[in-house]
Specification:
mainly beta, 7-stranded antiparallel sheet, 7 strands, 12% helix
Amino acid sequence: VVPEEEAKVEFKQTDKLPDNFPSDFPVYEAAKLEGYWTASGENIDGISAIWKTSNDPADLITFYKSELLKNGWEMATVFEDATSGTFTITKDTQEGFVGITKEGDTALISVTIGLSQ
């Protein structure tokens, strides 16, 4: 039995996305990037990023539904209501999910994308 390579996980609190974050993924302009995590494994690299904004979650859901499709991403809505939404996304060898939630007066946008190596 060959041991699996352990994943390497790293968190960065920054206002800039990593270079390998998909350039065609839409970023909501009024949101502030809080930071991101990267994970590297044997066959896939992963990126999770979190943004905060004072905008309404319903507006964010509408934005992502429209802009993801414009940029060639396929999307399946898993859950959606007036204050939150979660959908899976795929494009080529990339797949992940977008989560939008309300936290007090702030909306959080969480994006996780796996990039096949």
